[in-house]
Amino acid sequence: MSKKKTKAKQTIWALLFIAPFFVLFTVFTIYPIVQGVFVSLNRWTLMGRMKFVGLQNYQRLFRDHFFVDALWHTSFLSCLSCRLWYCCR
After folding, report:
1. Using CA atoms, how far apart are residues 58 and 46, in angstroms rounded to an integer?
2. pLDDT, tens digit, for every residue of 18-61?
3. What are the residue ranges of helices labelled H in 1-89?
4. 51, 42 in Cβ contact below 8 A?
């Protein structure tokens, strides 16, 4: 066999061994992220049709004081725990 055929055969085998990872990665990681972004840009009651509302859901989310408070508390506790972890090691 020539070097070109051997190299092509090795490349095909390498791609065949890597392909299952990319299929599983796409199915379990990329697709859910894309689907989540798509659904978040729509108003959907799960029973009817989706209605595209754009960033209106995010505007409503950041105007909600419960969400903003929860985001602040989570950020504060995360920073505090990281500082304590670095200081006490």
Report:
1. 19
2. 999 999 999 999 999 999 999 999 999 889 999 999 999 999 99
3. 3-25, 31-40, 56-63, 65-87
4. yes
Give the span between the Cα atoms of 64 and 4, in whole angstroms.
63
Q: Are 67 and 61 in contact (CB under 8 A)?
A: yes
The helix (H) or strand (E) run that includes residue 54 is: none
Alpha-carbon gap, residue 66 to 52, rounded angstroms = 25
Q: Assess contact for 42 and 53: CB atoms under 8 A.
A: yes
Residue with tokens 């409503």: 60
- CB contact at 8 A, 89 and 83: no
Contacts of 61 (CB under 8 A, 6+ apart): 67
Q: Give the global pTM.
A: 0.68
Say how far apart CA 3 and CA 54 lie, in whole Å: 54
